[in-house]
Specification:
The chain is α+β, with helices and mostly antiparallel strands. The chain is 27% helix and 21% strand.
Length: 551
């Protein structure tokens, strides 16, 4: 798993929540329309609606909307994939793996039948070459591999080839990774699409964008290959050389480009697409048409929060921080139209595969007032005006005003809201020029340690500047354990986070998807990394469209 994601990457992802909310806001009510029948050339071809330009480069980090993730994981296959129910790693391009006795050396055996889309074998050296290249990229990408011994030094070195990197190909099918320390969930992090192998020719093809006119030039190792790249959207066909070809029931995937987010739902209404994710939770209205649409809802591993600037005296007092958290009414701040995709965060971790979310925050305005008085600020008297720093994408969002009103009404705490453009927001956070800063964090693997390890980042990489030795000790102990023992340590670490309230958790997010009833095999994935190779199409009964909510 990714335990040390970079600050810029997480700030980039903070914009994802705003983009998703905008998508929900701009979806228009549907108008009745007669669906178009599936064309013969689209038999067993899954049609995926998207409004985002799809780029077939796994080493680029753009807004990770579901279609982009699904596009990459259809073309490329990393070593692992995570079980959506348990979060546990499963073999993908890898066949097996084993740890050394001290659990700092990981040896991975690749599939002997793994092939590129041109039929060439996929080798361990392909991974070594690809990851070395990734380490030479910007820090927000390179940090994915920093758990490997000397990876950060390799990234920063002017002479990287002289650095003894803990990454080597022992033979064509054996990859050896030496880690800088114990990392219990490292295998799961190898499911990141960013860590897919690249064919020696892929970099040039992607840089020249020649795949648009000559799609066969893009050689990939996933279950599908690029077959076309028109203005309508990229088209994929099942790769005849994929090791699991016999289990892939789709003949191909057609990504259908919508002119805008607001028009994307109409592609499903018109029968031109089979899948749309995300979709507004309060759309669509039933349509008079001859096919059925099914709505699916799933949790995501995203959390919005307030970071405290602990370099300023009032906020160094944990009683002040707890008072601000306990005085909130998270549920009341969620408008009815957002109730299906926002969930009050009453802990640091949401529900996720293999982890049952705890309830650690019991909001209590009376207790908040007592804590603030104990800290020397009864009724907010003597507490300076707190500046709340937000990205400009949040302007117009009703939540900040609701939180400010609640703090003033319950505690007498006065606040000032400032919105900044992305660059200025990042600069002010880095300079600790704020009191509270709004952030959104998104896990990169379905493991409880991912979001918790935010608190192990270097002090100067956290906006909050909160370093808690007891918390770090618990997280360090957890990294050396496995199974139930590790989860128990992570639970205690989460309890420490909430007890000291170094940050204020605000909201968890849910995602809704809309599918034609012909689509079978769909499953929830908190990272929106559904593997489309698992899906298939099966004729559904002809009847009027309706929507069905599914957990």
């Amino acid at each position: 798993m990714i335990t040390n994601a970079s600050l810029p990457r997480w700030i980039d992802l903070a914009l994802l929540a705003a983009v998703t909310v905008l998508a929900f806001v701009f979806f228009m009510p549907w108008q009745g329309s007669q669906p178009i029948g599936r064309q013969p050339q689209d038999d067993q071809v899954l049609r995926v609606a998207c409004s985002q330009e799809l780029v077939p480069d796994p080493t680029r980090r753009i807004f990770p909307m579901p279609p982009q993730n699904q596009f990459i994981l259809s073309l490329w296959e990393p070593l692992m994939e995570c079980d959506p129910e348990t979060g546990e790693p499963q073999p993908a391009a890898a066949e097996s793996w084993n740890w050394s006795e001290n659990r700092q050396v990981l040896t991975i055996r690749l599939r002997s039948d793994a092939r590129w889309s041109n039929g060439e074998p996929v080798t361990a050296q392909d991974f070594v070459r690809s990851w070395r290249s990734l380490l030479r990229r910007n820090a927000s990408l390179a940090q994915v591999l920093f758990p490997i011994k000397n990876a950060e030094l390799y990234h920063r070195s002017d002479n990287p080839e002289a650095v003894p990197l803990g990454l080597e190909a022992l033979d064509p099918l054996t990859l050896r990774l030496e880690l800088a320390g114990t990392n219990a969930a490292f295998v799961a992090s190898l499911a990141d699409p960013l860590l897919s192998p690249m064919h020696p020719t892929s970099g040039g093809v992607l840089a020249a964008r020649s795949y648009r006119t000559e799609p066969k030039k893009l050689i990939t190792n996933g279950p599908f290959r690029l077959a076309g790249y028109s203005t309508e959207g990229p088209r994929l066909l099942a790769s005849e050389h994929y090791h699991g070809r016999a289990r892939v029931r789709l003949a191909g995937i057609q990504f259908v480009q919508a002119e805008s987010l607001s028009l994307a739902p109409l592609l499903l209404a018109a029968g031109r697409a089979d899948l749309l994710s995300p979709v507004s939770p309060d759309e669509p209205h039933p349509l008079a048409a001859s096919h059925q649409l099914v709505r699916h809802s799933e949790p995501t591993l995203a959390l919005s929060l307030w970071e405290f600037n602990l370099s300023r005296p009032p906020l160094r007092d944990a009683r002040v921080r707890r008072a601000l958290s306990l005085a909130l009414d998270r549920a009341a701040a969620i408008p009815a139209k957002e109730a299906n995709h926002l969930v009050p965060a009453r802990a640091w971790m949401p529900d996720l595969p293999g982890w049952r979310g705890q309830i650690l925050i019991q909001e209590d305005a009376a207790m908040a007032r007592r804590l603030l008085a104990e800290a020397g600020y009864p009724g907010g008297v003597g507490l300076p005006v707190l500046e709340l720093l937000l990205p400009i994408a949040m302007k117009g969002n009703p939540h900040p005003d609701a939180w400010c009103e609640r703090w003033f009404h319950e505690l007498g705490v006065r606040t000032r809201v400032t919105y900044e453009a992305r660059a200025d927001f990042s600069r002010r956070v880095a300079a600790t020029d704020y009191d509270l800063a709004y952030q959104t964090l998104i896990a990169t693997v379905p493991d409880a340690g991912d979001l918790l390890n935010y608190f192990t980042w270097p002090q100067d990489a956290q906006g909050t500047r909160w370093v808690d030795p007891e918390l770090r000790a618990k997280l360090s102990q957890a990294e050396a354990k496995h199974g139930a023992e590790r989860l128990a340590l992570l639970q205690r670490a989460e309890q420490r986070v909430i007890a000291e309230m170094g940050v204020i958790p605000l909201m968890f997010y849910r995602r809704e998807s809309l599918l034609s009833a012909e689509v079978r095999g769909w499953y929830p994935d908190p990272l929106a990394r559904q593997s489309l190779k698992r899906l298939w199409l099966e004729s559904a009964p002809v009847r009027a469209i309706n929507t069905e909510s599914q957990p």
